[in-house]
Structure formats: C-alpha cells, structure tokens
Here is the input.
Amino acid sequence: MKLPETSDTIAALATPPGAGALAIIRISGPAAFSTASSFLAPAQRDPEHSAARLLSVKNGPALVDRAVVVFFRAPASYTGDDTVEITCHGSPYIIRTILNLAVKSGARPAEPGEFTLRAFLNGKMDLAQAEAVGELIAAGSAGAHRAAITQAEGGLSAEVRGIRTALAGLLAEIEARLDDSYEEIPALETRAFARRAAAARGKTLSLAAGFGAGRGIRDGVKVVITGAPNSGKSSLLNALLGYDRAMVSRRAGTTRDTLEASLDIDGFSILFTDTAGLNARAASPLEREGIKRAEKAIALADTIVLVKDASVKESPGDRRAERETARLALKGTRLLRVLNKADLLTGKSRRAPGCLLVSAKTGDGLPKFKAALVAEQKKVFRDGAQAVVTSARHFAALSGAAAELAGLEAVLKKNRPPLELAAEHLRGALAALASLLGETTPEEVLGNIFKNFCVGK
Ligand SMILES: Nc1nc2c(ncn2[C@@H]2O[C@H](COP(=O)(O)OP(=O)(O)OP(=O)(O)O)[C@@H](O)[C@H]2O)c(=O)[nH]1
Ligand SMILES: [Mg+2]
Here is the structure.
C-alpha cells in the first residue's frame, strides 16, 4: 500500500459520524489556515496560536453555524503541520457542509489515520507511540488502557532506546578495533563484552516475553471452557458472569453450539467460550458438530479451563478431555484445571493437586479462580514493567533483535572471535529495534498500520 501524499491539506470529522451535541472537524496541512479562513467570519488572517475563538461558519452569505475554532501553528500541533480544529454543532448536515466547504477551498478528505501518520512523519512521535494512539482509542478495559497510554507516552520506546544505546556502544567498540589497522587500541575484553551483550539480550527477551500476556491485555484473554459432558462447564460460566447466560441441565450434552460471553475481571477483559462436552460417544450429529466447534475453539484459546466433576471418580470422559486438550491446544496455551461441584464432596473427597476446587452452585472458590484467570496479565504490570508489548509487530522486532544477540554471543564464545561477524550481528539487532521505532520501516508496513485507524485520527 502506498502512503498518501503528505504535502497537501487534509480535512476530516474527528468525532464519530451521526448526530451529537458537538462535532469536531480537523483540517491540517500547509494551507489549513487559509482553507478554514475561506469560510470563517470574521476572517482570520493571522490567527493566534492555540486560542479558542467563537466564529461564524459561512456558506457564501448564509450562516451555517457558530463554532469554536482553534488554530495550531506548525510545529506545535498534533500533526506538526498547521492545523485547525472546528467544534461545531453535531448535525450531520452541518458537518457535511463544513467538510464540503473545506474541500471546495482546496483540502482533500483525509485517509484513515492520516493525521497520526503525519505526526509520525513529522517526528512528533515514533512509530510505537503512533500505534499506541490507535490502541488508546480502541482500549476497552483498564488494562488495555494502561498498556496503551504507557506506550503512547513513550514507555516502550524508552525501553527500546535504552537497549539500543547499549548495543550502539558495543558496536562502536568493535568498529574502533576494525578500523585500527595499527593495533593501537587494546584487544577486546571478550568476557566483559559478552556479559554486556547478554544483559542487553536479557532485557530484549524480557520485553518480548510480556507479549503473551500483553496480547490478552489489549484484545481480551480468550478463555475456553472444556471438559467431559455434565462436569458443570455452563454452570461455571453462569456463576462467573453472575447471570444465566448458558442453559444448564442434568442431562449430558446440553451445550451444543459454542457460546461466548465477556467479563471484566480486575480491569482485564476476558472473553469466555462455553463449549459442548467432549463426549466420545456423541450420539447425534448435532452433538458431534458441537464437539467439532469445541475443538476449533480450543485451538484458538489463550487459556483453557478444563472442568471435571469433583463429586465422582475421574471418568474416562475426564481422561479423554485431558487427551483432547493436549492434542488440540497450541503451544504456549495456558491450562487451568478446575474441579467443580465442590459442594458435593464428602469425606472421601477427590484429591487433585494443581486443580482449583470450586462450586458453581455455591460460588466457593470462584474468587480464586477469577484471580487465576488474570494472573499472567496482572504479573506483567506488577513486575514494574514500564511497557507491555501488545503488538505482534513489536514482538517480532524484539525477537529478531534477541536472535541476533544470541548469534553475537555464540561468535564471542569462539577462540579469537571474528569481529566482523560480531559487528554484523549487532547491526542486525540495531536494525530490528529501529524498525520497532519506525526509523527504517518500509512504506508498505506503515500503510498497513495506519489503514486500521479511524478517519480523523
Ligand atoms: N451440586 C452441584 N451441581 C452442579 C454444579 N455445577 C453444575 N452442577 C449441575 O451439574 C449438571 C450439569 O451442569 P451443566 O452446567 O449443564 O454442565 P455442562 O458441563 O455444561 O454440561 P454439557 O453442556 O452437557 O456438556 C446440572 O444439573 C447442574 O445443576 C455445582 O457446582 N454443584
Ligand atoms: Mg454446557
């Protein structure tokens, strides 16, 4: 995808479409002031920077609206170019008229994310920060918001820059020796050098490791509830939600289709999927189809909750569910084993180390279970991380850098390490980090990032 032209003037509605009390229209680019002035009265020849003015919007002689207008002079604006923000009444007719007036006097309708793209290209923010703007708007939970605002404020970028500074220092030391044909500089202290490289790799890996939980923080943690028929999966979902979302019955094979429901637990968004019990002897085609859907859901889960009935001995169904889960789950999927129906336990209670004991009926054990569902997400924040990696692009860049650094460490272990090769690995790691910050990112990738933004941002 080609990036849009950046030297012209763009206009767009920044607030959601439809009627509202107020709407904000943004115009940005070299001709933003003259474009806006062409339909504002009194005329604003030399508008004051960042001051709000109540002005008339005129379509020829006709009054369209009275609007609050703020002029931001480059570079002190969101985009870095001259920008005008018009707060008008939120009538679709007024909005359309103002946008038409702007286009008539030379602006063009903005593409999605184009204001933020310009902010990035003008150096107002790096790419990780620009991406965080989109995430901030989309954030639907306290956790997603916290990750996004930290990244927008430059938290992730600062960590990455810290690693980069360390690597640039290492590279300078090697390059000095490569250039030193008279061998005036003492030989490289390989051990100390390798220790510093290892420290940088450690930091890179620990940032990347946050991605497992970070993706769940941003998009919601996908939790799939599975287990043998009748173990109480649907009852457990209902108990967690606090209302009767799923049908429950004494008969095995009640749930057929997968059923989704979301819940906010401690500021993290959890997307539950209740599924048909994994029944080896599924009698009807409907139940078999349900199991197929359950299997699909399991393969997409971040966390699998495997429910067993605590009131009976472990059944072949339980064992089958264990096997199927192990077979279907992707590597890295978290497995939480839950023993349900704790209220029915008698003296000879079923022992199951590593299982959470709960009762969907009485609610016993549910607080602990809920805490376990968000434990990984909570840990990321608790570890004092300044930044959480929530984007696959950032994860890939960090993993790439870490791989180069692993290569560097292998080179340094050699007897008389070849410095050219060490420098190559360092350059590779630096390039990966630069791509995260958007310094070397190809247009194609930029285009893909910004096209997912809303128009007007
Ligand atoms: N005493 C007790 N009964 C429970 C508990 N949880 C579920 N049940 C009962 O167990 C039976 C099965 O519950 P469901 O929630 O339908 O079980 P399920 O695993 O969704 O079953 P399928 O959808 O058929 O696979 C119902 O009669 C529930 O009332 C519990 O914690 N305690
Ligand atoms: Mg069910």
Notes: The mean pLDDT is 94. The first strand starts at residue 10 and ends at 13.
